[in-house]
Amino acid sequence: MKRLMIAVFTLACFTLTATAQESGRTDGAEGSEYGKGGNPFGYSAGRIYLSGAFGSGFFGPSSQTQTGFLYGVDLGYEAYEWIGVQASYAHLTDRDTDIFSLGTNFCYEWRPFVYNLSLQAGVYDQDIAGRHFGLAPGAGLDIVLGEKVRLGINYKHDFIFTDNRTTDLDRVYASLKFYF
Amino acid sequence: MRNLIILITSLTVISCAGPRTFTKGTYEDPETIALLDDRFNENDMQLIAKKMVSSLVASPSVENRATPAVMVGKMRNRTAEHIDMNALSDKIRTSLIQSGRFRFVNALNRKSIAREYEYQNSGYVDPAQAHRPGSQTAAQLILTGTLSSNVQEVGKEKLVYYKATFQLTDLGSSEIIWTDEKEIRKAYKKRRIGI
Questions:
Q1: A35 vs chain B: nearest CA distance in angstroms?
Q2: Sign of the alpha-carbon torsion through B92, B95, B98, B102
Q3: Residue A9 needs a FRET pair 20 to 30 A away by CA distance; which of A142, B80, B105, B140 works?
Q4: Under CATH, which architecture does the B39-107+135-189 domain have?
Q5: A31 at the B interface (CB within 8 A)?
Q6: Which of A155, A1, A162 is nearest to A89 (CA)?
Q7: Does a cis peptide bond (omega within 30 degrees of 0) precede residue A40?
Q8: DSSP 3-state of A43
Q9: CATH 2.40.160.20 fits A2-19+38-179, yes or no
Q10: Do B50 and A33 touch (CB under 8 A)?
Q11: Is the model's pLDDT at A17 over the cut of 80?
Q12: ipTM of the assembly?
């Protein structure tokens, strides 16, 4: 799983380099404007972000559970202002659950707020139940604190597919996101 | 959980309320390339003017003439866009005058100048200082230009091509003594800007 995370991060870095576009100037040598352009005042496409998260998670009502402390980290790449990919790790103290997931993020920016919808798939590694696959749709609201910092509140509902049934997990957490 | 959903919904509704307007701005370097949309912009004008000025100043056929007097003639816009051709010719004229290699006669304000002659010779102005018709500099050359375009658009891709052709004609012989062109091609991709 660690190798997968490293591969995703490396891929995101290469993609960022490939899509970066310089503004350029018109007072250089003739032809120096080739390949330059973009919108220097708007959104800079191709940004990597790192987000720290903390909150709580609780398994569905059918499970023997107690609310656990949740912490984690998200590493994402926004290809455009409305879509990106994200790799996440989260740890829930209840059942000693590790969650490794990968998925897409859809954003709509209405400053100072940014609304997020996400869908992630991943591995849920539980101390007592072993490893299982699951899906996690989610929604969130970020507040833009600065060009490179956002504070958010998020909700995710996890469907963990086990042998005989689907286990539900709700996650509510705050996040602090830094863009590079 | 219900309270959280109510909070998020409330914040969504509050943040969507009210019109948006341009209230935050900064001064920018005008020679920085900025392509906000697919139309002719100030960068295209700067690139055309730069090419024409450098070509004119270095032209051997102009070098032989000592600071020739030039008039700006017809500037044709053959594109489908509204483009201020006067702004383009003004930019070229300004750079040429500042180069010290050319003089320009003011053809655009001939009527105003003629009216001023009439006024200055009407008795209101000191006759010793009044200018009279007959002392103007004759233009030796006329600068004309044409801007044309071609647009190719398929799906999300769009290519916009401009070609600016300028020429300098000798008013005596009607010979084109200099001409040059600047080609500009810009590639665009459609992007979503709202919901």
A1: 9
A2: negative
A3: A142
A4: 3-Layer(aba) Sandwich (3.40)
A5: no
A6: A1
A7: no
A8: coil
A9: yes
A10: no
A11: no
A12: 0.80
Give, in order, the Cα–Cα distances in Å from A129 to each of A89, A90, A162, A163: 18, 17, 9, 10
Q: Find residues 10-39 of chain B whose CB sits inside 8 Å of chain A.
A: 11-12, 15-16, 28-29, 31-36
The conformation of residue B2, written as its DSSP 8-state character, comes to: H
CA distance A167 to A158: 8
CB-based contact, A113 to chain B, within 8 Å: yes
Q: Chain A contact for B138, CB < 8 A?
A: no
d(CA A78, CA A74): 12
Whether B140 contacts B68, CB under 8 Å: yes
Backbone angles phi, psi at A31, to 5 degrees: 90, -10
Closest chain B residue to A27, measured at CA: B31
Write down the mean pLDDT value for chain A.
84
Q: Which of residues 40-59 of B touch A (CB under 8 A)?
A: 43, 46-47, 50-51, 54
* Closest chain B C-alpha to A126 CA, distance in angstroms: 24
Chain A residue nearest residue B183, CA to CA: A31
pLDDT category at B10 given cuts 50, 70, 90 is low
Spell out the long-range contacts of B97-100 with Cβ–Cβ below 8 A and sequence spacing 24 or more.
Answer: B99/B53, B99/B57, B100/B67
Q: Which residues contact B46 (CB under 8 A, 6 or more apart)?
A: A26, A27, B30, B31, B91
